[in-house]
Amino acid sequence: MNEPSMSTDPVVPPPLPMTAASTKASPSTKGVPLVEMRDIKIAFGGVHAVDGVSVDLYPGEVIGLVGGNGAGKSTLIRALSGARPADSGEIRINGEVVSINNPRDAKAYGIETIYQQLALADNVDAAANMFLGRELTTRFGSLDDSAMEAATRKVMGRLNPKFKNFKTPVKSLSGGQRQSVAIARAVHFNAKILIMDEPTAALGPAETAQVRDLVSQLKSEGIGIFLISHDIHDVFDLADRISVMLQGKLVGTVDKTKVTMDEVLAMIIIGKLPDEVTQTELAGLHG
Amino acid sequence: MAEASTVPKNVASEPRPSVRSLLLSAEVDARLLGLIAALVVIWVGFNIMSGGLFLTSRNLWNLSVQSASVGIMATGMVLIIVSRNIDLSVGSVLTFTGMTMAMLQTQWLPESLLGQPYTWVIVLAIGLLVGAAIGAIQGFIIAYLMVPSFIVTLGGLLIWAGFAFEEASGQTISPLDTVFQLLGGGPVGSLGEIASWAIGALACVGIVYSLIASRRRRRRYGFPVRPRWAEGSLMVISVVVVLGAVWVANSYYWPAALAEQYGKGLNTPVGIANPVLIAIGVAIVMTIVATRRRFGRYVFAIGGNPEAAELGGINTRRTIMLTFVIMSTLAALSAAILSARLNAGVTGLGAQAELYVIAAAVIGGTSFAGGIGTIPGAVLGAVVMQSLQSGMVLLRVDSPIQDIVVGIVLVAAVGTDAALRRRAT
User: Fold this and answer.
1) What's the CATH fold of domain A18-110+191-284?
2) Tens-place pLDDT, residues A193-247
3) Which of B4, B6, B301 sits opposite A132 (nearest CB)?
4) Minimal Cα–Cα distance from B68 to chain A, Å?
5) DSSP code string of A117-148
6) Model pTM?
């Protein structure tokens, strides 16, 4: 499974698009990146949902992936999580070219995903969801529900101490509780690379704060996080670097400390980098 | 993987007792209780209306045998419906495999293998394999070629009925192997008094042991457990029900003429019929498969959220295909029982069986929205359906009226269930 393969492209890695290379990265981005996605292309019918995008992610780093609706953020990230493999391009994990064709491949590389729609089976309980596809079994091959419940209680005790409903289907839980089940799954399986697709979209303010704390905690443990969000405040709070997509292409990747929120908005809306955009255009954003 | 000692102990505090919380703390399935209550009402009602003919050991014994084949198939239908599919072909698969087994033991097997004490094993094994193969074909088309199960099995309904007619040129194939016939029940194909009590005792030991083992396991991890009284009553009730059922089966005696023919004395208890034993075995195995195995967990996860199951890394296609393999294999098992009971392979053997099987699963609480259903519920659903039918036969209700009543009950049962579910959420 770890055998390098894939890459329908020539041996020489394709050059970065001009826009992406034009901005220098933050000081933390040295050494071998945890994840490199190179020239990823994904098309649906004739529509290029993702068109030659390259991004990378270092250990302990949060990359905010932003863009309007239909910009291709989720589609790009689904190539990494194995939900919808890329048509072409190259993915490297710790510098090695890998082939990710389904969610199982991704999990084998320590990639865990928290999806926008949470991807929980509503009709079963928290433990069943946390271990979905990776159940613990006894030596007779039957499900070891007690061991799974114990592990779930342990992780939940860390993430959300107020969580008590271990025996009920997750359907009856609140948005925040459901979110903590989804996050618990990633935490328990020692994710090295975490993908969070709109993690706070369904949450109230207190629960959002909880997720933010958790992101900081995971980051300090050296986990690399791709954070997809509509909420530019979320991204500015949590991300180290911000990659902006527009109409399937990467506008650019910028260091959070070197840009203003308006400059990022300009990238999202008119697709111009901070050094290209004019003051009138920036002012126009709020018109 | 997880250390028990790290689990906090203060996870449950005793709630104030009310009927609702009592039931909750006993962890008894309310839907199952409702079904049992409905069954009691039906039984008592028919008993009063028929002047005491319904609740006799003879009628209840017959009821158990008649429920067996639909009950067996209903356990498979639960998995199919839970994973958001349907199998309309079970009746025709039943007819086809039944006819195949009849042909095998009368014409197709070589002479030297016919009439042997082991002939039935060969016939049954081939019959089950044919069933599994049919399920694999249909399941493959549904899971991998993505043709809707409604269409594939609607086609199967026509195709397998057609093949069943063709393979015997529409004739009735009879008589069958004498040992094979024992699969169908009847006083000869039953366990008798002592073996029935032995099975009953074994079942009681099994129930008590599994309740204690599960309690110990939860204790060891420091999880909340059922209150002692609940655990105790559950044990007592289960044991009483099991032994009561055995007692009823043993209260039914061999009919005088048959007893004389087989050299048995008067008042020889019949005991549990073979098909009933098979059905109970199937129900236990299928319950384990549905609740204690990965495969069952995946079936329910797919029914709850197919996308989540896929993203969780579950091989959803293989899982779906397997549910159809199981379903058709169970249809073949029912075919063996039904044709053994008739002592013949006939072309109409499984006609409309799919409707009764689906009805049994649905009355037993299986939801067409997917993700919800239990094996014991489906078996009880089969008993409810059969009770209605056999009660109406006792009351000499005309067959068209029977159909009307069964139809109304089906819609009413699902309607009530849907209404209750809406209120619960």
Assistant:
1) Rossmann fold (3.40.50)
2) 999 988 877 777 877 887 888 888 888 888 999 999 878 888 888 899 999 999 9
3) B301
4) 27
5) TTT--TTS-HHHHHTTTS--B-TTSSB-HHHH
6) 0.86
